[in-house]
């Protein structure tokens, strides 16, 4: 039931595309990074200055890449692997076939992320989401009954009506079309007018509360609400997000995060890895051909264990093996909870208001289990029904979402047997791989009694539980009702003009600092905020014809809600 299939979204409307432009901070990141004059300049005496970057995920690598191009010397620390949650794990038994353990489908509206992806010769293809045009068929299996659909027209009257109710609710309660039109037009005053009214109205409203109280669902039935939770919109079931802040859900749907998604052939991890490896031609200070890799002799520094404000005013960084260095500027680009778990962080580096926000941040759990299969057999036709023998599957059974990766008839296929969140992910947490696979196969057997999926499996299965890894502690942020103020504090921390000196010079970026967690675009946008803050902190400036997030902050700042 993707919004793309519903006439009320206005997605087919002509004009400029919907992008991740606001609504909280409607700054055109894509224009800033595409501008021929670059992101800014640093005084010549700053060239070669070391800046610590903690975490080599997409946020850390993007910032390091831009800082290097400006003539600074990023020193990247990483405790696990380059790419972080853009983790494409290869199946050992094959060449170039991967399981996307973290991010796997990237909406075209993520224009800052695609700016970096497009620097490299990487192929993307449309992702086979439920009922997406590229998806041969979708099975929706609820309460023991399966429905087979090739297009939205094949949906049952109930499913069609659930989709209608969701769009009515968005339209009636959250000015959906007006906001999308304003985002398309990059009309900042209209975006601000709509959003600044919704923020106080919805800050204390959960996703569930929004739907349950909406006139559109109230005049229908509980069954509609329940089915919506299982089937959701765009990428699949959303009931695991029911406790989340409705503001977060609105940001996702306004900016089409759940629409027109692509995957990267060979794995998305190639994006951060290419940014790390590729020699650069246009750099300040560094000789042509310098890369992040060459500045680091091929590998990042180890993980960070200790952060402190030193007596000389610099920030001391100590790695896991005890190496100490000090910096004028440090970017923390790992999950912020790690500042209270794996990193011993001098409390004076942040205000207590920021600590409150960092600690109250809430992460969602997520597990995925993948198998490689001999070929995309799911496209075989059942001789009795003429239907695909297996389909992209949404179900209330424990697998929740099963996704099929067709890499060509002459290649193995990949099946994400189960992509689950929250309680459904916790059910998997203590279980070994084999048990996870078995449970998923048992569930799918109920839906596809004629398919012997096991017979197609080749190689070893791959599974992940992000909450089980001390380098992450969770999959991504999922803000709760009442968290707007915390999100705002973290997001705006790159503006350091008013901070006391002992809190300046340390910056935050990454998935949990952004407004739309769980989407890599937020990690990229917050890393660009940090770059803007670091340029300013080190005495640099932007070009007058290409102002950055710091320059435009006062004009575009997210609405402040009172604390007292
Ligand atoms: C299951 C899942 C599905 C997702 N699906 C999508 C999707 O389909 N589309 C989409 O756009 N986004 C998706 N995302 C979100 C996307 O993957 C993230 O937003 C993005 O990868 C986060 O990048 P980051 O740099 O902020 O953080 P990370 O990638 O977490 O990078 C932080 C790095 O810091 C390192 N680190 C931790 N502790 C230390 C330390 N002490 N010292 C040094 N380094 C340290 C970590 O090892 C890690 O490499 C998904 C994420 C998950 C987990």
Describe this structure in words.
The chain is α+β, with helices and mostly antiparallel strands and 564 residues long. 30% of the residues lie in helices and 17% in strands. The chain has three domains: 3-19 and 156-263, Guanine Nucleotide Dissociation Inhibitor, domain 1 (Orthogonal Bundle), CATH 1.10.405.40; 35-83 and 269-362 and 479-556, FAD/NAD(P)-binding domain (3-Layer(bba) Sandwich); 90-102 and 125-132 and 366-468, Polyamine Oxidase, Chain A, domain 2, CATH 3.90.660. Helix 4 (157-174) crosses helix 9 (222-231). The strands form six sheets. It has a seven-stranded mixed beta sheet with strand order 8-7-17-18-19-16-20, sandwiched between helices. The chain has a four-stranded parallel beta sheet with strand order 2-1-13-22, with helices on one face. Strands 12-11-10-14 form a four-stranded mixed beta sheet, with no helix packed on it. The protein binds flavin-adenine dinucleotide. Flavin-adenine dinucleotide (FAD) binds at residues 54-60, 77-80, 84-86, 102-106, 303-304, 333-335, 338, 342-343, 366, 466, 471-472, 475-476, 510-511, 518-520, 523. The site of flavin-adenine dinucleotide has 39 residues, from helix 2 and helix 17.
């Amino acid at each position: 039931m993707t919004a793309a299939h519903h006439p009320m979204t206005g997605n087919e409307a002509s004009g400029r595309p919907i992008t991740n432009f606001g609504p909280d901070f409607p700054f055109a990141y894509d224009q800033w990074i595409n501008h021929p004059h670059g992101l800014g300049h640093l005084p010549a005496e700053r060239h070669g200055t070391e800046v610590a970057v903690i975490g080599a995920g997409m946020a850390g690598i993007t910032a390091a890449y831009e800082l290097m191009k400006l003539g600074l010397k990023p020193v990247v620390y990483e405790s696990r692997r380059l790419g972080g949650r853009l983790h494409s794990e290869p199946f050992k038994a094959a060449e170039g076939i991967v399981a996307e353990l973290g991010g796997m489908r990237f909406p075209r509206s993520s224009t800052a992320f695609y700016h970096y992806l497009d620097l490299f010769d990487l192929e993307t293809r449309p992702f086979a989401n439920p009922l997406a045009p590229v998806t041969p068929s979708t099975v929706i299996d609820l309460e023991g009954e399966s429905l087979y659909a090739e297009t939205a027209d094949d949906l049952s009257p109930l499913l069609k009506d659930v989709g209608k109710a969701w769009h009515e609710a968005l339209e009636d309660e959250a000015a959906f079309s007006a906001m999308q039109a304003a985002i398309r037009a990059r009309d900042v005053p209209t975006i601000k007018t709509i959003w600044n009214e919704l923020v106080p109205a919805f800050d204390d409203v959960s996703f569930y509360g929004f739907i349950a109280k909406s006139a559109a669902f109230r005049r229908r039935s509980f069954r509609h609400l329940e089915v919506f939770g299982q089937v959701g919109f765009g990428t699949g079931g959303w009931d695991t997000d029911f406790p989340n802040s409705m503001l977060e859900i609105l940001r996702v749907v306004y900016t089409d995060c759940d629409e027109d998604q692509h995957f990267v052939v060979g794995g998305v991890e190639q994006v951060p890895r290419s940014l790390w490896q590729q020699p650069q031609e246009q750099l300040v200070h560094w000789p042509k051909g310098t890369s992040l890799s060459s500045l680091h002799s091929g590998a990042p520094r180890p993980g960070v264990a200790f952060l402190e404000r030193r007596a000389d005013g610099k920030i001391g960084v100590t790695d896991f093996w005890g190496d100490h260095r000090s910096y004028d500027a440090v970017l923390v680009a790992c999950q912020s909870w790690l500042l209270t778990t794996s990193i011993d962080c001098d409390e004076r580096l942040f205000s207590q208001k920021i600590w409150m926000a960092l600690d109250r941040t809430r992460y969602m759990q997520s597990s995925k289990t993948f198998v490689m299969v001999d070929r995309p057999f799911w496209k075989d036709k059942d001789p009795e029904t003429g239907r695909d023998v297996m389909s992209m599957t949404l179900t209330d059974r424990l697998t929740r979402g099963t996704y099929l990766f067709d890499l060509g008839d002459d290649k193995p296929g990949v099946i994400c047997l189960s992509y689950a969140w929250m309680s459904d992910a916790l059910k998997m947490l203590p279980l070994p791989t084999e048990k996870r696979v078995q449970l998923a196969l048992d569930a799918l057997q109920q839906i596809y009694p004629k398919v012997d999926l096991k017979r197609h499996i080749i190689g070893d299965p791959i599974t992940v539980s992000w909450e089980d890894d001390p380098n992450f502690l969770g999959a991504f942020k999922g803000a709760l009702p009442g968290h707007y103020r915390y999100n705002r504090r973290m997001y705006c921390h790159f503006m350091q003009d008013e901070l006391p000196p002992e809190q300046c010079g340390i910056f935050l970026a990454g998935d949990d600092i952004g407004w739309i967690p769980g989407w890599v675009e937020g990690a990229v946008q917050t890393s660009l905020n940090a770059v803007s803050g670091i340029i300013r902190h080190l005495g640099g400036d932007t070009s007058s014809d290409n102002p950055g997030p710091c320059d435009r902050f006062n004009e575009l700042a997210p609405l402040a809600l009172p604390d007292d």
